């Protein structure tokens, strides 16, 4: 029976981390923090690959697209951002969540063309990332 092996402490955020998610291929870890940033980590090397920092308020959720090429992030600033994971470039954005509160969870569908986002006012927002059209449910 093998023993678990400690790899690294990944330290870079300056406030608490709200959530972490693995990329589909398991090489990268994304962390979302109350410092309003998302960080992408190379877990094997213990290094921060890039910091994604367009959000204005705490980031509550992140989710990788099924192919791992994109990352969605949802924040208390009422926005959902879609980032390119290789470059860290912000490629799409949606702002328009609830007036009081924010986006608490984001997730991709299996085809990778839609992102769901749950909001603090009890709504679910569905974004078509091919054209970034939103539908309120």
TrEMBL record:
GO biological process: regulation of transcription by RNA polymerase II
WD repeat feature ranges: 10-51, 52-93
Main localization, broad class: nucleus
Record's keyword terms, sorted: Nucleus, Repeat, WD repeat
SUPFAM superfamilies: WD40 repeat-like
Localization per Swiss-Prot or TrEMBL: Nucleus
A GO term, aspect molecular function: transcription corepressor activity
Family: Belongs to the WD repeat EBI family.
Protein name: Uncharacterized protein
Biological classification of the source: Eukaryota, Metazoa, Ecdysozoa, Nematoda, Chromadorea
